[in-house]
Amino acid sequence: MSTIICASRSTRPGSIAGLRAWLCQEVRLKLLLVEDDPLNGQFFVAALKPDGHTIVVERDGIAGRDRALAVPFDLIVLDIALPGMRGDAVCRALHAAGLRTPIVALTASVLPEQLALIRDVGFALILTKPIEPEALRAAVRRFERSPDVAR
């Protein structure tokens, strides 16, 4: 089962903050988050929601792979240890299918040899858990596009 969360900024119309939020809406991302742990998923959504991203959550690797191939996303965030299909296998499958969307890995593995195996798969970025909310937001912001770039 998937969850779709559309985050919107609440600002007063006509204010500088409202104008800034309106301008920033053009660079918000449509994210696919594939995370099997409900608490981690809620944490990641809560961290990213204030930035106005649209977030689709899938709970297993197969569902995440299928959703990524069926719907265009700006960024995919994959846990590595997923049921059904591991995140690194999902990343390989998506690349093999020609998908060019940046894919970020989330992993609790911190041993150098484990990280090297994950790095070799072709992730755009690898984030290790636990991760602070601001670090997650900063990582996602790296993939935002400027308003003058067409999607």
Task: Give your account of this protein's structure.
The protein contains 6 helices and 6 strands. The two termini are 27 Å apart. The chain is α/β, with parallel strands linked by helices and 151 residues long. Strands 1-3-2-4-5-6 form a 6-stranded mixed beta sheet, sandwiched between helices.
Summarize the structure.
The chain is of the alpha/beta class and 151 residues long.
Unreliable runs, pLDDT <50, ≥5 residues? Answer: 6-13, 146-151
Number of E-type strands: 6
Q: Strand sequence of the main sheet, in spatial order?
A: 1-3-2-4-5-6
Q: Level of helix content?
A: 25-40%
Shape: globular
Helix count equals 6
| Order of secondary-structure elements | EHEHEHEHEHEH
Largest sheet report: 6 strands, mixed
- Based on CA atoms alone, the radius of gyration comes out at 16 Å
Give me some keywords for this one.
disordered C terminus; 6 helices; 6 strands; 38% helix; alpha/beta; 151 residues
What layout of secondary structure does this protein have?
Layout: E1 3-6, H1 16-24, E2 30-34, H2 38-48, E3 54-58, H3 61-70, E4 75-79, H4 87-96, E5 103-107, H5 112-119, E6 125-128, H6 133-141
Parallel strand pairs: 2-3, 2-4, 4-5, 5-6
Antiparallel strand pairs: 1-3
Helix pairs in contact: 2-6, 3-4
